[in-house]
Amino acid sequence: MRTESFRGRDFITLLEYSREEVETILDLALDLKRRFAAGEPHDHLLRAKTLFMIFYNQSLRTRNSFEAGMTQLGGHAHYLDPEKIYTPALPGREVAYTTERVSDVARVLSRMGHAIAIRCYGDPVDWIYGGANEIIRNFAYWADIPVLNMEDDKYHPFQALADILTVQEKFGTFKRVKFVMSWAYSPSVHKPRAVPQSAIIAATLMGMDVVLAHPKGMELDEEVLGACQKNAQSYGGSFQIVNEFEEALKGAQVVYPKSWTAVPLFKPPVGEDNPDKAKEIFEANKDWICDKERLALADEGAIYLHCLPADRGFEVTDEVIDGPQSVVFDEAENRLHVQKAVMALTMR
Ligand code: CP
Fold first, then answer.
1. Which of 38, 69, 127, 282 has the smallest C-beta neighbourhood within 10 Å, fewest atoms?
2. Rounded Cα distance, 1 and 153, in Å
3. pTM for the whole thing?
4. Which domain holds residue 286?
5. Do residues 194 and 147 both lie within one domain?
6. Using CA atoms, how far apart are residues 126 and 268, in angstroms rounded to an integer?
7. What's the structural domain count of the chain?
8. CA neighbor of 53 nearest in space, from 40, 61, 62, 41
9. How high is the pLDDT of residue 204?
10. pLDDT digits over 27-48, tens only?
11. Which residues belong to any copy of the Aspartate/ornithine carbamoyltransferase carbamoyl-P binding domain (predicted)?
């Protein structure tokens, strides 16, 4: 296992990691998972190291998996609420004695610990698409220690690692696995695009046959779609986009229906700053729910994925998410193992 390339690196998107590096992360994650299950101590890996976690948004899985992961690796994860520190802000969005410039926060924390992890999307950047990614990039520019993306408005790379690790565990291969990333209905239009975008990047990187299904108006970032096309060409899989839910599910091995917002919600130039128009698109597609009949269109051995939290009764029925094909809790657990792997590799 070649690990030298990881030391000190930021982890913001899988687009900045090679397939070989992602395979190394998955290998180490499986090893750490085995050691955790066997009760084998591995707290020497990041002993006395500190991870600073800044959460602009709520979280169950991400916060607890990073915190538990750092404890298990022998270090400590420090939770920072942006409202209780001086909120890290970029020039142009500063408020005297309320915010602190990102460049200053990044340099202070770099003197005291070993990585900075950030979650930021949506309201904290007024739904300006890319605004949160810009904050994380600015942290990375100024920090002397790795910056880890715990979900921004473009990418959720740790979720994607957990998704593909779960697929690898269930099928033992990525080859000829049909991976359907689908939009699903939610009563809330305030849903970032990071999960589906990172999922299709990861799935195409591993060479799966990836189908992205969504109603018209729910298009994802063109740059991400272009990267997926390139991945498909490079790694022997395929990538297609369809506007039909049931057709997409036919013969799938992986079914991943998840809500994300409609483009008009974002501020110009990407969107129209029009939540009502976004809501209209959502309401016209209420039938995009993963129920037993739809799941039956997939392969008999298909698995159901969801990053959680799920909007039960809207994105998915209880019968499906609590049913035998659902692997959502394995997927949630895998957040712990992949994050420990990345931290162990980058924070040494
Ligand atoms: N999937 C995920 O990131 O969950 P949290 O929002 O609970 O962290």
1. 38
2. 32
3. 0.97
4. 158-332
5. no
6. 11
7. 2
8. 62
9. 98
10. 999 999 999 999 999 999 999 9
11. 9-169
